[in-house]
Write a structure and sequence with these properties.
This protein is an alpha/beta fold and about 190 residues long. The chain has 6 helices and 7 strands. The chain is elongated and about 80 Å long.
Length: about 190
């Protein structure tokens, strides 16, 4: 029926990635808000990592990742933490990422590209744990953050940098003039 088709998964959600496809699994240092005042709690998340992310981290960029391991889609989707070496967890209690199946498929597809397969894959060999990153929590990844926009968030633009020609609109000075001009056009 038409209703069933409209509610079907969005384009791109059927990733059709085989279980033996290579993908990197990372341990990310994240945070969760535990109170209304914004108090944060440390959380370590196991999540699939794209080839471009591995390459950028290898080049020394700051990251929330503490460790990577080369693995397969099937191993990640099994969600068996005992299947991976304990050194991957860096001594932390870990949890699996949200939307794991979809994110694993997306990350695995990045590893199928020529550059990723031929060059980047050597940075995280299958079954080997890497931990030599520029790990930083300066820019915190907050998992359950909700951005509430308020009217007080709006900042009135200084007229000295106004690029829209609104000079004089502040007190309605030019508003009447504009209405008069529009009225003239209609009364031609």
């Amino acid at each position: 029926t038409e209703t069933a088709r409209a509610c079907a998964p969005m384009h791109g959600e059927d990733l059709s990635v085989p279980g033996d496809a290579f993908v990197t699994l990372g341990v990310a240092h994240c945070f969760e808000q535990v109170s209304a005042e914004g108090k944060l709690k440390d959380v370590w998340v196991l999540e699939p990592v794209s080839a471009s992310t591995v390459e950028v981290v290898d080049n020394g960029a700051s990251t929330s990742y503490e460790a990577f391991i080369g693995t397969t889609v099937g191993q990640i989707l099994a969600k068996d933490t005992s299947a991976f070496p304990t050194e991957l967890y860096c001594g932390h209690e870990v949890q699996w990422a949200d939307e794991l199946e979809f994110r694993t498929g997306c990350a695995a597809r990045t590893w199928m590209r020529d550059h990723a397969r031929d060059v980047v894959r050597n940075l995280v060999p299958l079954g080997e744990v890497r931990t030599d990153f520029n790990t930083s929590t300066e820019h915190k990844r907050i998992l359950n953050f909700v951005n509430e926009v308020k009217d007080s968030d709006n900042i009135k633009q200084d007229m000295s940098i106004d690029v829209y020609g609104r000079e004089g609109e502040e007190d309605g000075e030019s508003a009447g003039g504009a209405e008069d001009e529009i009225a003239k056009l209609y009364n031609v």
